[in-house]
Specification:
Blueprint: H1 13-22, E1 39-42, E2 72-79, H2 86-108, H3 111-116, E3 125-132, H4 137-149, E4 154-156, H5 161-171, E5 177-180, E6 192-194, H6 199-212, E7 217-223, H7 226-241, E8 245-252, H8 260-266, H9 269-290, H10 293-299, H11 314-320, H12 326-336, E9 348-350, H13 355-361, H14 364-367, E10 376-379, E11 398-401, H15 404-418, H16 426-442, H17 450-453, E12 459-461, E13 464-468, E14 474-476, E15 479-482, E16 489-492, H18 498-518, H19 520-534, H20 538-561
Parallel strand pairs: 2-3, 2-4, 4-5, 5-6, 7-8, 7-9, 9-10, 10-11
Antiparallel strand pairs: 1-3, 11-15, 12-13, 13-14, 15-16
Length: 562
């Protein structure tokens, strides 16, 4: 039988730009410029009005800002408004719109009036300034220098990981913190926190949920390149941490056709196909031996004109064996419904990409007989895409992401104010400014100290609870969601507080210890994963990871053959 390949979608520049904007993969530095940074001050006294696709720095459009004095709180927003790429400049305008909306809401609900309305040593003004990074590391550095010179209290942004890394040296040793939008954990620093949704957290949440449901053996399909390596290392660590094992990993290139062979290997398709053919031959041989002579004669067509051996009508043979060997016939009928035979050595498959890459991969898994009814498909927040409801192979797949209800309320309000749907990153701009206003309201003196920013209780953001950790990373409370033909289904709700979050993690780690005691191989994988996490060199990390995977693959091969 000739197998018909599934539809292969084509790659597009739009998907690449989406990953760039979201910081999903490490990005190369863009061309540097040394142009001066543009700056706008804005202190909203009325609700923001109509959405403008591009900010052209016409200060007459904004209310007159208050003058900076010793009682002002100054928040500088660093965004690539002047980026030559139109989609990036539009995204930046949306992010600044969200920042303005947060400041207005803080004033409306009394946070600013309560804190800044008093006299004396308390802050009396809240100033929001916009600095253009031009979309380059050099532009980000210039923008940060301008913000520092203007006595900024806290920086919100920049957007790209390369820009975040460019401003880090400028903040070192200063009492100025930054809340950046990147999700590249390598860009974090002691006083520079990331607000982006870190893939590592997605992995931790989805892995702990899967293991809690009894899925302890994992396969992985990861893209080639730095992003895939980074994500895979995190996946191996988290699986070992929670008491599971990664038994097989395959990497694939970006082109859709190049995905065939990696998925074929992951499916053990050739081995399982050969096993199917061998079992079918055995059943037919047994049927021949059991068939009476008259039945066998009726089921054969006799010698061919060329003198070749007789051809057996297998269907006629097993139809005639119905009363003689019903169990044999039943086994034959069941085998006809499949193309492969044998168990796959994992309970779940992890696929960290979204968009076109995922839509190219999804049909290949059932095509090579990885049954989504028996193997759970797992992903990251990149699966938080309504269009995936139209991909039947992914129905039932799990991913970790914020509860969509939280975002829906914010998006509706943003649309009412600006007349446009907000980009997904807008919640981070809103949360950054909102957090600055809240902290200033609670602590008038030095509100952005590390001890305050890293409060273990965190704060409630648009996308749920979030807290900032030592070293510049964040931690979020995420829900586990399931792809369905309609809206995503919540499998495990997000925690309401970090007390609940920490209790869940503690319970998952207790289960992990039990699993490790029961399986020495898991304990070995956990030890190697811990060593991997402590390794500083990226090359050494990859080497350790490959050694671990080879060891686990060797262990899994005998199981796969049974």
């Amino acid at each position: 039988m000739t197998r018909r390949p599934p539809f292969l979608a084509t790659w597009s520049l739009a998907s690449a730009l989406f990953l760039v904007a979201c910081g999903g993969a490490p990005q190369p530095d863009l061309a540097s410029t040394d142009t001066a940074s543009d700056s706008i001050e804005y202190a909203p006294k009325t609700a923001p009005t109509t959405y403008r696709e591009r900010i052209d720095f016409d200060t007459s459009l904004f209310p007159a800002p208050p003058k900076r004095d010793e009682n002002s709180v100054v928040v500088s927003v660093l965004l690539p408004i002047g980026d030559a790429r139109d989609n990036i400049s539009k995204l930046s305008s949306h992010l600044y719109n969200a920042a303005q909306l947060a400041l207005f809401d803080a004033g409306q609900n009394g946070q600013i009036r309560q804190t800044f309305g008093a006299s004396g040593s308390q802050k009396t003004n809240f100033v929001l300034r916009l600095h253009d990074t031009k979309g380059t590391p050099a532009g980000a550095a210039q923008a940060a220098k301008a913000a520092i010179a203007a006595n900024t209290d806290i920086i919100i942004g920049p957007l790209f990981a390369s820009s975040v890394k460019a401003i880090a040296p400028l903040l070192a040793g200063r009492e100025i913190s930054a809340l950046a939008f990147s999700n590249d954990s390598s860009a974090a620093a002691n006083n520079l926190w990331l607000l982006g949704f870190l893939p590592e957290q997605n992995i931790s949440r989805i892995v702990s949920q899967a293991i809690a449901q009894g899925l302890t053996r994992f396969g992985a399909l990861v893209p080639q390149g730095p992003y895939g390596e980074r994500i895979h290392q995190s996946f191996v660590r988290e699986v070992a941490r929670f008491g599971g094992t990664v038994v097989q990993t395959e990497t694939y290139p970006k082109d859709a056709k190049g995905m065939f062979d990696p998925v074929r290997r992951l499916a053990h398709f050739d081995t399982r196909t050969a096993a199917h053919e061998a079992e079918m031959a055995r059943l037919i041989s047994e049927g021949r031996a059991l068939a009476p002579a008259d039945l066998l004669a009726r089921a054969t067509s006799g010698a061919t004109a060329t003198g070749e051996p007789e051809e057996l009508n297998v269907e006629a043979l097993f139809k005639g064996l119905g009363k003689i060997a019903p169990e044999l016939v039943s086994a034959y009928e069941a085998l006809k419904l499949t193309e492969t035979l044998g168990e796959i050595p994992y309970d779940a498959v992890f696929m960290p990409e979204g968009g076109l890459a995922l839509r190219n991969l999804a049909p290949l898994l059932p095509y090579f007989d990885i049954d989504p009814r028996r193997v759970k498909f797992l992903g990251t927040a990149l699966w938080n895409d309504p269009s995936l409801s139209q991909e039947p192979p992914l129905h039932g797949g799990w991913y970790a992401a914020p509860n969509p209800k939280n975002w829906a309320g914010f998006a509706a309000r943003y649309d009412r104010v600006y007349g446009a749907a907000p980009p997904r990153l807008a919640s981070m701009a809103y949360d950054g400014v909102s957090l600055a206003a809240r902290l200033a309201a609670i602590t008038p003196k030095q509100p952005f100290r590390t001890q305050i920013l890293t409060n273990a209780n965190g704060f409630q953001g648009i996308d749920g609870i979030v807290r900032l950790r030592q070293g510049g990373l964040n931690e979020r409370g995420l829900a586990v969601q399931e792809i369905t033909a309609r809206a995503p289904n919540i499998v495990s709700r997000e925690p309401a507080s970090f007390v609940e979050h920490d209790r869940r993690v503690s319970s998952a780690l207790s289960l992990a210890q039990t699993l490790k005691r029961e399986n020495p191989d898991i304990a070995l994988a956990a030890l190697q994963a811990e060593q991997l996490a402590k390794t500083q060199s990226a090359r050494e990390e990859i080497g350790l990871n490959e050694a671990l995977m080879n060891a686990l693959d060797k262990k899994a091969k005998p199981e796969a053959a049974q």
